[in-house]
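Continuing the batch. This is chain 6 of the set; chains 1 through 5 are on the previous pages. Same settings as before, nothing changed between runs. Recording input and output for traceability.
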Amino acid sequence: MRIAASGPNAGRTWTPLTVANAGLAFALEMGLLAALCYWGFKTGRSTPARILLGIGAPALAGLTWGLFLAAGGPKFTLPLVAQVVIKIAVFAVAALALRATGHPTLALVFGGLAVLSVAVEYATR
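Output for chain 6:
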């Protein structure tokens, strides 16, 4: 199936693999925000610090994602290599946040799924 819309998904051929990966990618993006929010509220030493980190960390990640990586068309287009590096880096921060809050197995699973999803996304373009 081809998409007749403009933007980064224009003319893309959708297969069962790419559709499943799009669902996984969306779940990982939501997990990224949840992990950073959880880390922020667990890490702060005081209530204001917890609130600032719990809201600020996911907001910063969302801003970065929206400016450079958004599926509907990022605000600033980057070279392919830079997109991959930034995407992996943002997911790695979320995995490290999970590890820092005492969830090493979840961090490994999250990081592994993120690497797999990014590899499938850019290999099927």
